[in-house]
Specification:
This protein is an alpha+beta fold. 31% of the residues lie in helices and 44% in strands. It has a four-stranded antiparallel β-sheet with strand order 2-3-1-4. Strand 2 and strand 3 form a beta hairpin. This is Glycine cleavage system transcriptional repressor.
């Protein structure tokens, strides 16, 4: 029976870092079944769900300290129980463009929490507008709205929030 392990690794970006990490994972007998990687200010953040038998995951856990030292990584491992997929949730994408200010992301996350909307992914980026030299931000999210929530209510209240916070916002269903 396959089990799962979440790994998060943070280290200074350099050639071969991710290759070394994924090589160690595969040599332990684990499979990377889901992963995300981001480069932020010269640092790489790698997060993944690893699957394998109990002994392959144990092998990786036992070698974690050596891996930390060899690759100079901050490393966390956590065993997880596989949960059945939540059904009856509708996938939506949320896009925001606004003046960069403290608290915008927190306000958005609070809104979605209030409606019991699961936030599956968040990507933020700050920049300075070429035309006005105004500090700006983009926020992109993937959310899963419970089908018990009236969609028009959630969308209408989301647009009201955007108006109140002076955000240019869009919420659309993900089309596959």
């Amino acid at each position: 029976m396959n089990q799962s392990l979440i790994i998060s690794a943070l280290g200074s970006n350099r050639p071969g870092l991710l290759e070394g990490l994924t090589r160690h994972i595969s040599q332990s007998g684990c499979n990377v079944s889901h992963s995300r990687c981001s480069l932020i200010d010269g640092h790489v953040l790698f997060v993944a769900r690893l699957t394998g038998s109990w002994d392959t995951l144990a092998r990786l856990e036992a070698s974690a300290e050596r891996l930390r030292r060899e690759l100079d990584l901050d490393l966390q491992l956590r065993r997880i129980e596989s949960r059945p997929e939540r059904s009856h949730r509708l996938p939506y994408t949320v896009d925001i463009v606004a003046r960069d200010r403290t608290g915008t992301l927190t306000e958005l996350l609070s809104f979605f929490s209030e409606y019991e909307v699961e936030v599956a992914e968040v990507v933020t980026q700050s920049y300075v507008s070429d035309h006005t030299d105004t500090p700006m931000a983009t926020i992109q999210m993937t959310v899963h709205i419970p089908d018990a929530q009236p969609l028009t209510l959630v969308r209408d209240h989301f647009m009201e929030l955007c108006d109140r916070l002076n955000l240019d916002g869009l919420m659309e269903p993900i089309k596959h």
